[in-house]
Amino acid sequence: MFVLSVVKPPEGEAKYGKAEVCEPVAERGKLFTQVYWALRERNGWMHPEVANKHAEGVYLIDTGSTVTCEGLTFRIDKAENAPHACPCCGRLVLPDDHSFAAPRDADCLGCFTWEVDAPAHLPQNSAHAVKKESK
Ligand SMILES: [Zn+2]
Ligand SMILES: [Zn+2]
User: Whose atoms come closest to the Cα of 87: which ligand?
Assistant: First the structure.
């Protein structure tokens, strides 16, 4: 089983873009379709043949590696080691990012509060576009 993650370019002062993790697929070939439609969605003017060509360059990359195409960063992982999107900011969280990163509802390194005094949701370390207003 393979899992495709698609990361959009960062917004505003955010360091990371928001990620979308696709449904796991049994065959690598099915990743091609996911890449193809992510590219078409990103750029509706993209000619299908161009999208095809780009998708061919993406879906065969090694698991754990990334490739950027049309501003989108694609990453392929084995399903048992799949990343997820931070439930707070949407940054891609890898299972080994920090000691509590494995659960699918784990925050990213920029949102997780390590110490009581440490500020959470740092734009320079998360996908937040602007600093959160403190209440
Ligand atoms: Zn986050
Ligand atoms: Zn956050």
Answer: 1
Secondary structure element (H or E) that encloses residue 132, with its range: none
Q: Alpha helix (H) ranges present in 27-128?
A: 29-42, 48-58
Distance from the alpha carbon of residue 26 to the mean position of ligand 2, in angstroms:
32
Q: At what angle do helices 29-42 and 48-58 cross, to 10 degrees?
A: 130
Q: Cα-Cα-Cα-Cα dihedral of 95, 99, 100, 103, to 10°? A: 30
Give me the residue spans of the domains in the chain: 2-81
How many angstroms is it from 127 CA to the middle of ligand 2?
8
pTM of the predicted model, to two decimals?
0.89
Q: How far is CA 80 from the centre of its chain?
A: 16
Q: What are phi and psi of 37, to 5 degrees?
A: -75, -30
Closest CA to 89 of 128, 116, 58: 128
Model confidence over 94-124: pLDDT tens digits? 999 998 999 999 999 999 887 777 788 888 8
